[in-house]
Write a structure and sequence with these properties.
Shape: globular
Strand order of the largest sheet: 3-2-1-4-5
Order of helices and strands: EHHEHHEHEEH
Strand content: 5-15%
């Protein structure tokens, strides 16, 4: 399952016991394929660096970058689907470019995309994504 993960979701996947740690484990166990661009990786670095100490942020990002189930995407088109927050465009553009199954975010700025028929992006929050993951991957 190819996913684009917004930094607000990834932030809670770093430590055992954190809300979204299961996402980190699923990535490590290659049950998910993480899709990102250089811009997304830069945002991850910035957000994690602001929230965690530099060593923790660096170690987590280094672990992400060597995952065999990581797809680094080069965008050739900018869809401009999120006029309320242009900084979030990179996640939507990546999802379209790679044909991601889901874009996982808790950011309300993505909600209007749910109504756009083309390009189709499946926007889900972290709770919805966990349910989808358990049904499709774990067959629970």
């Amino acid at each position: 399952m190819k996913v684009v993960i917004d930094s607000n979701v990834l932030l809670n996947a770093v430590f055992p016991g954190s809300k979204n740690y299961w996402i980190r484990k699923a990535l490590e166990q290659q049950q998910l394929t993480l899709c990102l661009t250089t811009d997304i990786l830069n945002e991850y670095e910035e957000v994690l660096g602001d929230f965690y100490d530099p060593t923790t942020a660096d170690l987590f990002l280094s672990a992400l970058e060597v995952l065999p189930n990581l797809i680094q995407v080069r965008k050739y088109y900018f869809w401009q689907l999120i006029p309320e927050d242009p900084d979030d465009e990179k996640f939507a553009d990546c999802a379209v470019a790679v044909g991601a199954d889901y874009l996982v975010t808790n950011d309300r700025h993505f909600n209007p995309i749910k109504k756009i028929p083309f390009p189709k992006i499946n926007i889900v929050n972290e709770t919805e994504f966990r349910q989808i993951f358990e049904e499709k991957v774990l067959h629970l």
